[in-house]
Amino acid sequence: MPSDGQLAVVTGTSSGIGRAIAQALLEGGWSVTGLDLAPAALNHPRFRAVNVDLANAAATDAAATQLAGASAFVHAAGVLRVGLLGALQAEHAELMWKLHVAAAERLANALLPAMAEMGHGRVVLVGSRVAQGKAGRSQYAATKAALNGMARSWAAEVVGRGVTVNVVSPAATQTAMTEDPARQAAAPVLPPIGRLIRPDEVAALVLFLLSPAAAAITGQDIAICGGASLPR
Question: pTM to 2 decimals?
């Protein structure tokens, strides 16, 4: 995938899907600025780590001022909190909304206008198959469903200006999130392929969506489901 030394901003690069995406971009010749609260997990001459709490609005806005020149934005940072009706906790909903939705909005608000002005840009938001709804995941599903609405709206705004905006929605993926003690009572369900999705498989699709070959794909929610969407 030719990158011509372009700069990609990726959130959540300390682990999981975000790290896999950043690694694949670096291998493809991109420069990457990674935004994460955790310490940097990548050591590469074209990788720059920005330590930031993306659930903090002021901190996110401040970080956005350091991202000039980006031609790609991938929002992969995320957390999962589970709960059934009667046991839902408002602070869990607030955290996931701030990290999944508000952070994406703040960063896109800073980055997309400049991309449109340049006449070229790519945005990918990492969603989830759970956005369609799942017992015990209502708060998480709400935030991921919101990403779909934002992506389609942004795509419509910049569709004629060389910028694409898409969502990639994996089924249960083999990351630290699936092993989080906070979800011990709600273990991930294996897709029909018999294993969890791998982070590098998500990264491969994201890289394609960032490439020139994907210029005609915008406003889409693309699933990496391992067959989970086959039953109707």
Answer: 0.92
Q: How far apart are CA 201 and CA 21, in angstroms?
A: 9
- Residues annotated as part of the active site: 140
Cα pseudo-dihedral 139, 196, 39, 54, rounded to 10? -20
Q: Phi/psi class of residue 86: alpha, beta or left (left: φ > 0; alpha: ψ in -120 to 50)?
A: left
CA-to-CA distance for 116 and 158, rounded, in angstroms?
A: 6
Task: Give the 3-state secondary structure of 162-176.
Answer: CEEEEEEEECCECCH
Rounded Cα–Cα distance for residues 113 and 205 (Å): 24
Question: CB count, 10 Å around CB of 27?
Answer: 12
Q: What is the pLDDT of residue 178?
A: 54
The per-residue pLDDT for range 127-165, each reduced to its tens digit, is 999 999 999 999 999 999 999 999 999 999 999 999 999
For residue 67, pLDDT over 60 is answered with: yes
